[in-house]
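Each lists sequence, tokenised fold; shown next:
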Amino acid sequence: MSMQTATNNEQNLKPSQLKPWLKHFPASSLSEEMPKRTIYNYVKSNCEKIADSKALYYYGASVTYKQLLDKIDRTAEAYQAMGVQKGDMVSFLTVTLPEAIYSMYALNKIGATGNFIDPRMDVQRIIDAVSGVRSKLLVTIDLAYPKVVKMRESVKVDNVVVVSANDSLPVFAKAYRVLTTKNVPKIPNVDDVILWKDFLKRGKGQTVAECPFEDDSVAVITYTGGTTGHPKGVMLTNDGLNTMADSFCLAGVDHEVGNRFLEIMPIFAAYGVGCGIHMPLAMGFEDVVIPKFTPDELGELVFKYRPNHMMGVPDFYERLMHSKALWDVDLSFLMTTGCGGDTMNPGLEARFNKFMKEHNGKYNLSQGYGMSEMCGAATCCFSGIYKDDSSGIPLMATTVGIFDPNTGEELGFNQEGEICMTGRNMMKGYYNEPEETANVMRMHDDGKVWIHSGDIGYMDEDGFVFIKGRIKQIIIKFDGHKVFPVQIESIIQRNKSVGTCAVVGIPDPDHAQGMVPLGIVELKSTLDKSKVDLEQLRKDIMQMCDELLEERGKPADIVFVDEMMRTGLNKHDYRGLTEKYKDHKIRK
């Protein structure tokens, strides 16, 4: 083939075929084979190689990699003694605790799957998540036990195992309770409710055979609302989680075994499971486990634990900059400040990078982009691989393409379209949701299955991805929590005076980052509007939302319009409404 022909062929290739991002990775990494093993086997291999290095740190209690493997194996024996077998599901209603981490790998050793549910969800959603996977065993944090009592009337599980955030505290720290002990429910002394310490005793005398790797075997299920707000179980595979973790290991990230990672992301989110737990343990880090914190405490945590790496959502870094605990602190120890969950506003990014430079930080913010459906991460900036306002380059085993959302054709460099992703870190699908799976995972003409993100962006000639906006109408709050307008709209619509309504996101007046939901209501045309007390109606609607929606999913305010703004196709003009009400002053 002539040089001219080769050049012409290359010009005809699309960005996803050219893969310009690969030039940023170490040449030695490009020939590495991604592991074909379970997540248990991956961590077990690390435990054997760096046995005496610290794996976990929990409020004064250190766990070496050797001890980690032993705790995982003892936990596996207990689950087996409780009748858990290959193919079974065990549901978890807990925050990130050492026991939850041991359980995730223990179940994987058996060949079972951990079904991790946000304990803050309302009871009906928890019921749906547990019964949907036909879970025979439920593990709950003690603080969530009252919800378990309510749901057991509808869901049949053989046993409930109760764990406390204080179970893993060292003896000298027992006086310092991790989570508030106020209003901790009394756990009944009955046969089918078992405390964690008694649960572990049941494994004595058991021998657990390690389940071998199988293609497409599901390691963990976490939940996402996608575009509808209906929680869907995202099936994360062994291959997917290992590929994502290994991609960071091989990316040239500035790190070494023994580095500290501040784990503040919850285990019930793919971001937490993949980037906060499995990836640090795969890289030989010491994972500092924080089960619960408020964003304003982040500076104090960084000052206290001096982590080398951390990940969070944009608002966390706004708080970190303003923390009195870090005003005069040398932050040269902090190498990676990973940011995901939402696109950071450029002004905040520039201020944070300036803050890090003034405090001797080595690198800029490591912005990233991903979805639960991609094990939490698909692109990232790392070490010196960085461009302003970019979400970084695709991970080594991930392919990103920009597609025309109308024609499905892949676009060229610097052309805006829908961001789609493919690779071994893709989910297997949504559990028992074939239609929802088919809507997100679509076969393209190249014969590959691609994840459709619903987000708009572009890729430049160097492979950096830039996020421009969202196709889907999700409202992301300051802490990364996603609020789905359809849920709020369905509640507002219940009021007999409401003709139609739309919910849009407007800037959060109390935080530098994030949005809050605003309800926009058009009254029924049959009403005599002159006789309607709008302020009382607003209070009635807000009260109904208080009663029927979770705390983080309530509208911040309600406004009334004579006529709803609509598009040419007579649909609610969400973009126009967002623009019109972006400066709305929220009434308390």
